[in-house]
Amino acid sequence: MPASPPSTRRLVILISGRGSNMQALVQACRDQAWPATVSAVIASRPDAAGLQWAREQGIATQGLYHKDFPSREAFDTQLAREIDQYQPDYVLLAGFMRVLTPGFVNHYAGRLVNIHPSLLPMFPGLHTHAQALATGVRLHGCTVHFVTPVLDHGPIIAQGCVPVLGGDTPETLAGRVLAVEHQAYPAAARWLVEGRVRLTPDQRVEVDGEPQRLFMGA
Ligand code: GRF
């Protein structure tokens, strides 16, 4: 008898804009036949460009506008309601430009993952590429990490790095970091849905029993 198929993990992806990381995740999930399905893409604004692409793929979409809610808590409560309809195993933040309340983060403890465009713990927050250029670092990149209530912080699952080149602008650097984001995030998500990621008691991530992985960009 054939072995029973691995159970299918459900993913919900949250975006705010163009959604290129979301596209990389959806495409890798399909092309590499992950034991997973992207159940929904939810945006923090109804006009997020990535929603259209997700719809065209036949994925359920939803746009919530934070200005329609009286408080951050009210927005996060409704967001969690929308997400929980799909009973996701993992919620993947992919360019989701909202600070989340501790209540929301704790609700998804161990299931909420983010990609940040810097080598954390360097340069949390916004304008990471400009910060990298201003400080003169020679290496820059991205970090895929579990989310904790502290902004841009949490156990690191994967990182991708690129050299900072003479003549780089925030835009050229962002483009090369984005290319390595599109490698690191799908890889990390695949390890998660394949059940290969373990959090050690001291809150470090192991993949197949090894420390977190590094991707080298150009
Ligand atoms: C990415 O660089 C992501 O790391 C950051 O915002 C950008 C979003 O790009 N948080 P996209 O929407 O995935 O194309």
Explain the overall architecture.
The protein has 218 residues and is an alpha/beta fold. 33% of the residues lie in helices and 26% in strands. It is built from six helices and eleven strands. An eight-stranded mixed beta sheet has the order 3-2-1-4-5-6-7-11, with helices on both faces. A three-stranded antiparallel beta sheet has the order 8-9-10, with no helix packed on it. Helix 1 packs parallel to helix 6 and helix 5 crosses helix 6. The longest helix is centred in the C-terminal third of the chain and has 24 residues. It starts with 8 loop residues before the first strand and ends with a strand. The model has no long low-confidence stretch (mean pLDDT 95). 5-O-phosphono-beta-D-ribofuranosylamine (GRF) binds next to helix 1, strand 5 and helix 6. The site of 5-O-phosphono-beta-D-ribofuranosylamine has 14 residues, from helix 1, strand 5 and helix 6.
Features of the shown structure:
218 residues, alpha/beta, 3-stranded antiparallel β-sheet, 6 helices, 11 strands, 33% helix
Radius of gyration: 17 Å
How many extended strands? 11
**Strand numbers in spatial order across the main sheet:** 3-2-1-4-5-6-7-11
**Order of helix and strand elements from N to C terminus:** EHEHEHEHEHEEHEEEE
Biggest sheet features: 8 strands, mixed
Q: Can you tell me the residue ranges where pLDDT is under 50 for at least 5 consecutive residues?
A: none
Question: Which class do the helix and strand fractions yield?
Answer: alpha/beta
Q: Note the beta-strand portion.
A: 25-35%
